[in-house]
Design brief:
heterodimer; A: mainly alpha; MetI-like fold; 11 helices; about 0% strand; B: four-stranded antiparallel β-sheet; globular
């Protein structure tokens, strides 16, 4: 197992390198001049050039890349053009809210979706199954920003039960922090829940049609034991794969949801930085998101071995 | 490293005296204000920068709480003293003497003196985003603690206006802050360096989450009437919390949910809903923003004056502005700048140059050299008021028989490609800054800093009068002439002004209805 982890981490290095190059090139090839954001539209060209020089954008692109990537290798992601502070500091501040949001969304998705998927597979074509199908269809078809706005309108504006926007850090007030997570977690987690429910249902249906399930039933084993021990255990790996995909999808989905809920996480940081062409922050964010994706995939791969004894990494 | 320690309140009595002075000055114009409480503002900008001098991307409503310039502008966009009590110009027009107000104190407890003005001026000329506009100043002289003189290389009637410009402003920092900063910009988390003389002081900055200001109890009030940024400043609430909420819909919902007292830059369509809700009120703030069309007269078909005039005579400004929302939310204004105060308004321009005559436009197209080439119409999606008239303009171009194609980009891309004159033939743009008369030159300059082809010697002569003449009447006549030259050349078409909408909770009193929000004048019931 340890060898596998080390091997995977070594493979990660060229991937991160490639992501770094791609992030840098993408950001620099996108039209838009960061210097323009410091000045009025009427600013003379000389002033724009002066700001460009101050930001280091007057250097040739290979030099800029070498400087930036050299810093990254030493753990320095650069300094934000706009906030004039290290990108790492900005991540340290913005990462926890995103982590809380993603985690609660995932928990919500799993606790809602897995039971729905299992029951709708066991009771295929029942009323519950049809309800689950509608649930999945709505979840897949509803844009999370729109769902977010509806939730704010209902639970914050009309009922006044929950905050409309913002995030209260748990170290400030645990209860208010929990409250501030509820609506964004639902908005973000619903589409993930729909995906997981759908995959759980189809995975379970496939397993329930296997010979060994029929044999178990023929032997007179209790139906619940057949469903939850024999079938679910074997259907779990595809579900795990989807959960892994859902985590990545939740991280990317947080870009929009954080904007709608004015949530001070990585997602809003990325969106603000893209609009302002704050290159060091965009590049750092892409690296961070790529790193997280690799990490999630590694964890999912390791969990396969836990859930399925046939898988060995040694 | 300069160590900073905020001075505690010297005495409650002093604070009360300062407050009494403030309220006494303002009370005659307003109801009896409540004092105290926390005002929460949902703000449209992410507020990542608070270096007023080094950039133009700071927000006036926010920095005016903390920092102050020598001169500011009133509601008529006329210069008015803030830190300067008065100013005079010498007979030869080459020396401007400023008398500074006595008793002004920085937030660190130190008195503001001419040495601080000198240090701030040096910073302005080193890293100032608008330093080029102060090039006419050859030197600055400190006469005594409360008198400074600026020497210019020639008469410069626009000096007070240039000093009053809120964007990239010449604010006064303590000399030690200037020394501490060197050539660096003030970072958003450098709270210890955010020392000004304004009515509120910065107490906390959490980037992207909140900026918190508290009343500065030793503030010395400017004299005069509150108008624009000029005059006494209320200081009614104890604390102002500004929450950057960049999404328009979220800002609006936060207001309806009662989480903020004020939400700025809301869509005009929200006003009816706010007025229908007993808990909220919608307010239009004038003059707001401007929107216009610019022709590329250096390359492509619009080098032909007939083709530019074709669009000018055919365009229905009312119809174009109608896309901006309810009629209360906008006004037609083909003038180079806002109608307020110093901007001479010449209604005749409207009838003479903008008759909304499509047939006459088609005739002009026929008389032009246009032979059906593609006309790329560049516009941006990030500024709603710039984007809204797009469909009407596109339809007009096609009605005129022009082969127009839409080129829609985001703001950053727009800012970048507009410089390349080979990429577009006509573009939509907009602006929101209230700027002095001398900034009219912007209409004649392309994004590469060069004159547009239509710019004439006469244009420059009028600009020169506006910049240098010491007689305001001469300057204003030149403004009228400048507008006529611009309309004749049809280099750009100004459509009108769009008023900003601010939503306030019904317990907010003295709510802002000017172009900028005077947050320090608001009180809560």
């Amino acid at each position: 197992m340890l060898t596998f982890i080390i091997r995977r981490l070594i493979v990660t290095i060229p991937v991160v390198l490639m992501v770094g190059i791609a992030a840098f090139l993408l950001v620099h090839l996108t039209p838009g001049d960061p210097a323009e954001f410091f000045l009025d539209p009427d600013a003379p060209v000389e002033e724009v050039d002066r700001i460009r020089a101050r930001l280091g954008l007057d250097q040739p692109i290979p030099v800029q890349f070498a400087l930036w990537f050299g810093g990254v290798l030493q753990g320095d992601l650069g300094t934000s053009f706009h906030e004039q502070r290290p990108v790492i500091d900005m991540f340290v501040r913005a990462f926890p809210p995103t982590l809380y949001l993603t985690f609660t969304s995932l928990l919500l998705a799993i606790f809602i979706a897995v039971p729905i998927g299992i029951f709708s597979a066991i009771r295929q074509d029942s009323l519950l199954d049809r309800f689950a199908t509608v649930f999945v269809l709505i979840g897949v078809a509803t844009p999370n920003f729109w769902l977010g706005l509806l939730l704010i309108q209902l639970f914050a504006v009309q009922l006044g039960w929950l905050p409309a926007q913002g995030f209260v850090r748990p170290e400030v007030d645990v209860w208010r922090s929990f409250q501030s997570l509820i609506l964004p977690s639902i908005a973000l987690g619903y589409s993930g829940a729909a995906l997981i429910a759908r995959m759980t249902r189809s995975g379970m249906l496939e397993v329930l049609r296997q010979d060994y399930v029929r044999t178990a039933r023929a032997k007179g084993i209790d139906e619940n034991r057949v469903n939850y021990v024999h079938a679910l255990r074997n259907a779990f790996n595809p579900i795990l794969t989807v959960i892994g995909l859902a985590v990545v999808s939740l991280i990317s989905g947080s870009l929009v949801v954080e904007l709608v809920f004015n949530f001070p996480g990585i997602g809003r940081l990325v969106v603000d930085s893209v609009f302002r062409r704050d290159y060091p922050v965009i590049q750092g964010s892409l690296l961070l998101i790529a790193g997280l994706t690799i990490l999630v995939n590694l964890v999912v791969d390791l969990l396969y071995a836990v859930t399925d004894p046939r898988i060995r990494y040694d | 490293m300069h160590h900073i320690a905020r001075k505690p309140l010297r005495s409650l009595a002093l604070a009360v005296a300062a407050m009494a002075l403030a309220f006494g000055t303002l009370a005659h114009a307003q109801e009896t204000p409540n004092v105290g409480g926390t005002l929460t503002v949902g703000y449209h900008n992410s507020l990542q920068v608070l270096d007023v001098m080094g950039t133009t991307s700071t927000r006036d409503e926010i920095w005016q709480l903390v920092f102050e310039p020598l001169i500011t502008m009133d509601a008529n966009l006329e210069p008015a003293g803030i830190l300067a009590e008065s100013w005079t110009v010498s007979d030869d027009g080459l020396s401007w003497t400023f008398a500074l107000r006595h008793g002004v104190t920085f937030h660190d407890g130190q008195p503001m003196t001419a040495a601080d003005v000198e240090a701030s001026f040096e910073r302005l000329m080193t890293i100032g985003a608008r330093r080029g506009e102060f090039d006419r100043i050859t030197s600055m002289e400190v006469v005594d603690d409360h008198t400074v003189v600026f020497h210019t290389d020639g008469p410069w009637g626009a000096l007070p206006e240039t000093f009053s410009m809120p964007s990239g402003a010449f604010v006064v920092h303590p000399a030690w802050v200037v020394e501490e900063l060197g050539e660096d910009l003030m970072g958003i988390v450098q709270v210890d360096l955010m020392i000004g003389t304004g009515p509120y002081q910065v107490v906390e900055v959490v980037p992207g989450e909140r900026l918190v200001f508290e009343r500065f109890d030793f503030y010395t009030q400017p004299t005069g009437e509150p108008s624009g940024w000029a005059g006494p400043r209320g200081q009614y609430v104890d604390r102002i919390e500004v929450l950057p909420i960049t999404d328009e819909a979220t800002r609006s919902l936060a207001l309806f949910a009662g989480e903020v007292h004020i939400a700025d830059q809301l869509p005009p369509e929200d006003v009816a809903r706010m007025d229908a809700d007993p808990g909220t009120v919608g307010i239009y703030r004038e003059p707001g923003r401007r929107t216009y069309l610019k022709f590329n007269d250096k390359q492509g078909p619009f080098t032909d004056l007939n083709l530019r005039r074709a669009v000018q005579v055919a365009i229905d400004l009312e119809e174009a502005m109608f896309t901006q929302g309810p009629e209360e939310a906008w006004r037609v204004n083909p003038f180079l700048r806002f109608q307020e105060g110093q901007w001479m308004w010449d209604g005749e321009l409207l009838e003479e140059y903008f008759p909304a005559d499509l047939e006459r436009g088609r005739q002009l197209v026929a008389e032009s050299d246009y032979d059906g080439e593609v006309i790329r119409y560049l516009t941006r999606t990030d500024l709603t008021d710039v984007f809204r008239p797009t469909t009407v303009i596109l339809e007009l171009l096609r009605d005129l028989g022009l082969n127009a194609e839409l080129l829609v980009v985001d703001g950053a891309t727009f800012s970048s490609i507009r410089r390349d004159l080979s990429t577009w033939e006509i573009k939509s743009a907009g602006g929101g800054s209230v700027v002095p008369l001398s900034y009219l030159d912007a209409s004649g300059i392309d994004r590469n800093g060069e004159d547009w082809a239509w710019v004439t010697e006469e244009w420059h002569e009028q600009l020169d009068i506006i910049a240098t003449d010491l007689d305001d009447e001469n300057r204003r006549e030149a403004v009228l002439e400048l507008n006529r030259i611009a309309a004749e050349a049809a280099g750009e078409i100004w459509l009108g002004d769009i008023f900003s909408v601010v939503g306030v909770r019904s317990n907010v009193q003295n709510a802002p209805d000017w172009h900028y929000m005077r947050l320090f004048d608001v009180w809560l019931d």
